[in-house]
């Protein structure tokens, strides 16, 4: 079979960009296909707009504080069109980094259109047929909208259209108290909306409950309302715009509705079933090397079963690029997986929570806890909310849960403690929570190694392997 490319990558979000860019930097002929905006969910509908909103909301919250440290600011006057502009400026500022032009400069052939498998090694985009011995699926995920009665009778929001709001909601009702629900709730409340979160289970259920409790206390004090229960029905309102009825009959009325009930992997409408790629409960099934049941096809990022975070997509993209180019079989390792929820205070986690460790290792687990109330920087800053919990077996660190100001920036030493690796190479390949300032350490370490990793010898080796793969099939 004559191939058009060494590798085809479907989807230009965090996962696909890293995989395609990595392969191209080793000199492989890489095709990158994107049917919507370059940069995917993180840039256009996810991390970047949400963090921009959080920043604007934080400014309003600071202005609205009563006198602190002898200083009283003028109360915040929120101009929603200015907040909206800031969100879209942040996206526009980062867009060139993920752009078609940049990836073409790196050596990728970028195709804009819907990709569809027409064979196990063939993909069609528009009227172009592409083929390659290796294919990477990085098609991402979309909001999971539960089948709530009457939902279609109201114009509801998800993370895909909330950035287009032309006015600040008067009362935002949020179904789902996970990460999106909590980050959005605090932001809109701080900007002046009334906000109610409806959640049947634990708020931010993946995090340590002691961390979550600190944030919930702050959010309650700021006026966010929490209602326990599952949303069962939505009705257009008479005075208010809508009413959500819970399974137990409670009613919550508001003017706007945000659905934040989790993500659904994008696995439909591009021929996966026809070529026999196996699917799991919510995503493509993969092994530890991110290979599907068809071993030459990889699935990375939000489209496969597993954690859904930008830094995870990037990590899997580079692992797969290394495997395809240099033949390094890189198994994923989640033992030092970090994540952070950018509420105020931030909730950051790496590795195991106390509950996970106790479930796996019982009473061998020890936990040490330090509060910020004894931290002199926190005292001087007048913000002692929060604590650090370190989860260990003996003195070996398994995980850490941090809640407090800039908690996401405090995870890096625990990456090194858990992995036991602290070289510049390890720093360059560490998984670092996105978006944090700590990522700059990875960038610096990567720069130190770039010339070696993408030097003439590894590139020559990668190209020879790709040539054999294309020619000997
Ligand atoms: C509101 C929100 C806030 C978030 N905040 C954070 C955060 O702070 N930190 C964090 O780490 N994570 C965050 N996330 C999660 C993060 O955005 C995702 O994990 C990440 O963007 C997934 O990247 P991906 O490349 O796997 O998928 P995506 O970014 O979804 O990219 C997939 C791409 O594939 C394209 N595509 C799909 N099918 C086809 C096809 N057939 N042909 C061609 N193209 C196709 C899509 O158009 C899309 O551009 C957030 C998510 C949301 C929704
Ligand atoms: N800071 C970050 O890293 C960040 C920020 C935002 C989003 N994300 C990513 O985005 C993804 C999605 O976030 P999310 O908040 O949508 O999902 P989630 O899984 O975190 O939370 C969804 C919540 O919705 C609740 N729910 C489900 N059905 C419901 C119903 N009928 N009524 C009321 N509640 C209901 C669930 O109990 C759950 O708590 C996650 O994978 C996350 O990793 C990450």
Task: Write a concise keyword list for the protein shown above.
Enolase-like, domain 1, flavoprotein, alpha/beta, binds nicotinamide-adenine-dinucleotide, globular, binds flavin-adenine dinucleotide, five-stranded parallel beta sheet, NADP, FAD/NAD(P)-binding domain, FAD-dependent oxidoreductase, 24 strands, disulfide bond
Shape field: globular
Q: In CATH, what is the homologous superfamily of the largest domain?
A: FAD/NAD(P)-binding domain
* Largest sheet strand order: 3-2-1-7-19
Number of strands: 24
Compounds present?
flavin-adenine dinucleotide, nicotinamide-adenine-dinucleotide
Please write the CATH class name of the largest domain.
Alpha Beta
Spans of at least 5 consecutive residues with low confidence: none
Q: In the CATH hierarchy, what is the architecture of the largest domain at level 2?
A: 3-Layer(bba) Sandwich
Structural class by sheet pairing and helices: alpha/beta
- Biggest beta sheet summary: 5 strands, parallel
Integer count of domains: 3
| Overall residue-averaged pLDDT value | 97
